[in-house]
Amino acid sequence: MYRYDEHDLRLVQERARQFRDQVARRLSGALSEEEFRPLRLQNGLYIQLHAYMLRIAIPYGLLSSAQLRKLAHITRTYDRGYGHFTTRQNLQLNWVRLEDVPTILDELASVEMHAIQTSGNCVRNVTSDPFAGVARDEDVDPRPYCELLRQYSTFHPEFAYLPRKFKIAVTGSRHDRAAIAVHDIGLRAVRDATGGIGFEVFVGGGQGRTPVLATCIRTFLPERHLLSYTEAILRVYNQLGRRDNIYKARIKILLNELGAAELTRRVEEEHARIADDEGLVLTDDEIQRVARHFEPAVYEQLEASPTIDGLVLGKDRTLARWVEANVVGHRTPGYAIVQISLKSERLPPGDATHAQLDAVADLADRYSFGRAVVTHRQNLVLTDVKISDLAALHADLARVELASPNVGRVTDIVACPGLDYCDLANARSIPVAQDVAARLRSLETEQDLGPITLNISGCINACGHHHVGNLGILGIDKLGEEFYQLTLGGDHTETAAIGKILGPSFAATEIAGAVERAVRAYLALRTDRSETFLAVVRRVGPAPFKEAVYGAHSTPTQRTAA
Amino acid sequence: MALIRRRLSAPLREPRSSDYEVVDTDAWLAIADDAALPAGDVIVSLSRFRAERELLAQRGARIGVRIPNDTAPDVLAELASSVSLLAIELPTQRDGRAYTVARWLRQRFGFRGELRAVGKVVRDQLSYLARVGFDAFELSRGSAHDALASFDELSVHYQASSDQPLPLWKRAARG
Ligand code: SF4
Hints:
The complex is a heterodimer of chains A (562) and B (175).
Chain A: H1 6-28, H2 33-41, E1 45-47, E2 52-56, E3 62-64, H3 65-78, E4 82-85, E5 91-96, H4 101-109, E6 127-128, H5 143-153, E7 168-171, E8 185-191, E9 197-203, E10 215-222, H6 226-240, H7 251-258, H8 260-274, H9 284-291, H10 308-312, H11 317-326, E11 327-329, E12 335-340, E13 351-353, H12 354-367, E14 371-374, E15 380-386, H13 390-399, E16 414-415, H14 430-447, E17 454-457, E18 471-478, E19 481-488, E20 500-501, E21 506-507, H15 511-525, H16 533-540, H17 543-550
Chain B: E1 2-6, E2 20-23, E3 29-30, E4 42-45, H1 46-51, H2 53-58, E5 63-67, H3 73-80, E6 85-90, H4 97-108, E7 114-119, H5 126-132, E8 136-139, H6 144-147, H7 168-171
Parallel strand pairs in B: 3-4, 4-5, 5-6, 6-7, 7-8
Antiparallel strand pairs in B: 1-2, 1-8
Helix pairs in contact in B: 3-4
The structure holds iron/sulfur cluster (SF4).
């Protein structure tokens, strides 16, 4: 993984010192809250319902065991002993004190971490494929490009005050595990006929109140132009993006208002001016220098057995279920990719306790070269586990309640913090997630529901990515009461789609039942187990689901969606 | 009005406090549209510059123009080659258009005169403003002497910008 050199290290140390001074000036009154706000937001510090929330950057989701232990220590020392992994591969602390934040930043700097640009109207943490470097369908490892973009965008002086936040995701695989279609810039690294690396460039995707899938504006951008093209897009956006209405300020709105052809023309025109700037053009040497940080682990030559399939068919059914849902094939014989579910009965989706963080650090050291990755579905991944170690790892995970066998299944729910923490929320997300999961847990085990994504957002800002869940739940406010809309057919992968609202919204007590009826409808409609939920939705359309969800169960609490 | 300016002797490079000074007596006078033109260097609005361009040119003093942060590129091109100072208005801390305008003026249109940030200009933006090409800052509040320290807060700059044509990886040996 990327190791800081003296420059990287000095920058995060200086940043912590700078922020310490800004906090001191805020506490003394020298800075007004209005002046402090954009400064703290550049550093991931929000004011929530009950306390400050600090969002820590985890560039492209990659963590070392030392970093995990430091995060455990921070949650234990400065917060309430747990953290929340987000849909952008970051970690949020919900109960920090303003005066502790500079010290937390010092602690983070000591393990090559920071909270720079995890909020505010700037380029945010660059996200990527959690299986990067080990996926079987990978053409190009996206992480060196993520790191190049991270450095390029860190404290970029021109783009710290964009019209709105700006999110970039990069993948290098055919199967999109980075949700590039719903990012301001989505990049897919590909190879041309001669093996040269370039990017398919997508622009203007996003969620929020106007969900849009990104448009491809370049089919092959040579890798040396990664930064110059990014700069051209950012510059056009900074100049022309709307600033009169924060709900119309994302680049997706600019794209819609100008039209894709005109936006592309302007980007290309700006790019033509700067494409050969020595300040922007990447060289092979520089790309190689960064890529060397991501060289593959030194794998052992392993026997072909045991196999993942063998374990799935094995006698230990608990282990088999876990392997089937959570373990994915690795490109190296004898190894496997292990996904650790953070969706248990006990904790809110995406939360991990300090003890669990420490445990994952230990397990990463023991089984997976001391690395772990955060996914945008709020789980963790150990990327390099020997298949022969899977049973032992499973037992170790079970001891710390991290062995839920449900990754990619309906109880692997993605949820934002919602009204329990967030002051923008209309409704709670976490209790709904827990209700739905409790209701579906037995159905999932008994019926083998297969892959279904279920996403919950507490308001239209869509941090829970409900638009792209196969099933999406959106909290809305109706005359002071919490209601929930159900959407169907969303997809965050290479076949991306925005889900459609199924019908009238539900009261908090009704929504879990509605989800269960939709899932039961799927069971009745599928031709066999190999037909996934999404495939059925695409084959039959919403009508049968609507009938199942609303048909006989219409109750007076249902009202028309606001 | 507290004014900070890059020293004339300072080389063009990434910000550091020793390259900047607090200016007590500014040679430039900002003139309202309806005020008579005094002798000396003046900063006028874009509309006045357009209306009285000949007159201004005949005075034998330098001309500065105050422009909004959404001034179009063709206007920037015209001004870059005809005036000695451009003052760009920052309406709020959050509105970042002035940063792109500054880079265009410096890199695309080759403007060599003084680029001054006016309006809502606070200490914590000075370093970013300096990096995109501003060399003078009318601080909207707080002590200018204290604000100088902000140029030294971050000494590592990954990217090229108006102050530095090369990215860090071309300037330093990297690990
Ligand atoms: S979706 Fe709304 S409620 Fe949920 S975290 Fe985002 S802003 Fe808060």
